[in-house]
Design goal:
The protein is 45% helix and 13% strand. The chain has 208 residues and is α/β, with parallel strands linked by helices. Strands 3-2-1-4-5-6 form a 6-stranded parallel β-sheet, with helices on both faces.
Length: 208
């Protein structure tokens, strides 16, 4: 059975407006010396990078030893705000399409997110029965390309492609040796891809 490996942010859902509120609250409550306000648009530029890379970018004005702890405070608040958000954060068609894809494909998730984020995503949306396995930067400390390879090896996948939305996703697929399917409705504009979808439901008819 062929497999599909998914990115999360910018591919399956968009939490940036909720996460922006969470981070701004964390900055206030934890007295993080950040100038300005975190916005959804700023987060869309950052999501897809590893947590350490995001910390270095967003909190570049802080001493190096304070950047990742600041990021950890923001992530902790993120884990509080997202579950409390009412209504769906999924892109159009994701809720209906995932169960249909799972009938004929094995489904996986690989993200550069913190540990626990993929579990939160699956739990909030009721996707646990459909996702065979998942991996993240927060769990392994490895970049996305290596985690894609880890999922492939761990599950003995012979045919798989990755669905994502950023240049980083494309580069990870190059490293992992799998085709990259570009979700054009997401956050980025990668320089290359094997196929493109304009709606998530396009995966139902994609030939790859």
């Amino acid at each position: 059975m062929k497999a599909i490996i998914f990115d999360v942010d910018g591919t399956l859902w968009d939490t940036t407006h909720v996460v922006a509120r969470a981070w701004n609250q964390a900055i206030k409550d934890c007295h993080i010396p950040y100038r300005g306000t975190i916005t959804s648009d700023r987060l869309k530029q950052e999501f897809g990078k590893t947590m350490s890379a995001i910390a270095a970018s967003v909190f570049c004005e802080l001493p190096l030893e304070q950047q990742f702890p600041a990021m950890e405070d923001c992530v902790r608040y993120e884990g509080i705000f997202i579950p409390k958000h009412e209504g769906s954060l999924l892109y159009e068609g994701v809720k209906e399409t995932i169960p249909q894809l799972a009938k004929n494909r094995r489904l996986f998730i690989v993200s550069n997110c913190q540990g626990g984020y993929i579990e939160l995503f699956m739990r909030k949306n009721g996707f646990e029965p459909y996702i065979t396995d998942f991996e993240s930067f927060g769990n392994t400390g490895r970049p996305k390309g290596e985690n894609i390879r880890l999922i492939i090896e761990r599950n003995d996948l012979r045919e798989a492609f990755y669905v994502g939305d950023t240049q980083g996703d494309y580069e990870a697929c190059q490293l992992a040796g799998v085709p990259f399917v570009f979700a054009s409705y997401g956050f980025g504009q990668p320089k290359g891809y094997a196929a493109k979808i304009d709606r998530f439901s396009d995966l139902l008819t994609l030939s790859l």
